[in-house]
Amino acid sequence: MSDTPTPIQAATSIDINSPEDSDSVAAVVSLYQKQKKIYARAVTGLFATWRWGLVWATQLLFYGLPWLMWNDRQAILFDLGSRRFYIFGLVLYPQDFIYLTGLLIISAYSLFLFTAVAGRLWCGYACPQTVYTEIYMWFERKLEGDRAKRMQLDDGPWSFNKVWRKGSKQAVWILFGLVTGFTFVGYFTPIRLLTSEAINLGFGPWEWFWVLFYGFATYGNAGYMREQLCKYLCPYARFQSVMFDKDTLIISYDTERGEPRGARSKKADPAKLGLGACVDCNLCVHVCPTGIDIRKGLQYECIGCAACVDVCDGIMDKMGYDRGLVRYATQNGLAKHLDRSEMIRRILRPRVLVYTGILILIVTAFSLSIALRDPFRVDVVRDRASLARIVEDGRVENVYRLQVMNSAEKPQRYKIQVNGLPSILIANPSEVQVGPAEAHWVTLAVQVPFEVAQQAGAGAHVIHFEIERMASDASPAVKLSEKSTFLVPR
Question: Per residue in 407-418, is it b (16+ CB within 10 Å) or e — as a string?
Fold first, then answer.
């Protein structure tokens, strides 16, 4: 066997035969660093209270909305089978996809605005990854203890206590993930029906798939991925810098006030010791869910949860120092020694005003579009399977299929007429009744006299279908016009 080192060996070892390295020992350097587990410490304070308030608010909405009823149906239901999307009193069809686009645009501009004003507020308080990680960490602390106990448990040998605590944690995590997956599917399949199916284990294949998939995703992301998803998978961490400027409020460490850091007794005068306000307790690192040291400055891993602010304020209180060593501040504010009011006044800068103006315009247009949307919709499709033809009485006939969509939750009657060519008429009955929140296909034979067709000439001629929703006690009459073409054969 040849003693010639491979390229990897050559790149990662030291030649012990070299005179220059005669005292060296060959060593292989790993190209990958093992991920160090983060044991985040529990924290209390103003921002922790805000974060838990949003955890409760978002989860009460998520788990509670599917159980709300509206007009004898589920208040929010995305019925993919019948292609109906119910949002309280609003009934949407696939043709209303533009509203989803509007919601996505509003969400994007809201994210831009909040980020320009105060950094990663979404990540720190309302992002599902943050919310579910907080919940899973709460379960972990209740079953395994706080930071020191969890580290001791992981480092210790396997025992009944360790198996019981680890097993209980896994069982609770899995159960919570399955409940989350079940609730998610409950937005697409009526949740009361889904509950009866769950009792009898009668899920369909797609329901099984999505309950297990979403449950596993919750369990994996919040239980194990945690900060790795924020640091490596989330694209927002990568492009957030383009939305920041020196007047953006971010979690900041006051280096001028805190350095040089060092331990001291509570009674000691830091000025006489030549020390800053930072006692170098490292608690800001211990409470960070992504494991960073905020004292090193702004880092893309920081999700803006402000846990370090809460814990540092607690230490400052114990030491008898002023709060705010770690706080929401701007780069300009720290550099120019601006007070809080001066930093807040700088929020109204061109970037923020532009984002705000665009967001207001989009929200206004979206709201007006929803309020003024057509009470019903009609799609007209000329039946391509049936060519233009001359029927028995000498008339030229085209066949059309109309889809009448009733967005109201009461049955409606519709009258259909056609115009655009002289003496044009609908040969078959042209009135239709459509049930609540239903779509009905109707086939219409449209005819014109042969003489009219000859005068019009061969080819396509524009016609209009007039669809009128007939007045009732529940709603007034409304008319809708849809354009199509009438073909005259050669």
Answer: bbbeebebebeb
Domains of the chain: 38-373 (no CATH), 376-488 (2.60.40.10)
Average pLDDT of the segment spanning 394-423:
88
Distance CA 447, CA 390 (A): 9
Tell me the C-alpha distance between 426 and 418, whole Å. 7
- pLDDT exceeds cutoff 90 at 240: no
Report the alpha-carbon angle 191-105-53, nearest 5. Answer: 55
Q: Kindly tell me if the per-residue pLDDT of 70 is higher than 90.
A: no
d(CA 39, CA 150): 8
Output helix, strand, coil percentages for the chain, rounded to the nearest 5: 45, 20, 35
Place of tokens 């909305």: 65
pTM metric for this prediction: 0.80
Q: List Cβ neighbours of 426 (8 Å cut-off, separation of 6 or more).
A: 416, 417, 418, 444, 445, 446, 447
User: Hey, what's the torsion of the CAs at 38, 40, 41, 44, to 10 degrees?
Assistant: 170
The answer on pLDDT for 288 being more than 60 is yes
Higher pLDDT, 129 or 16: 129
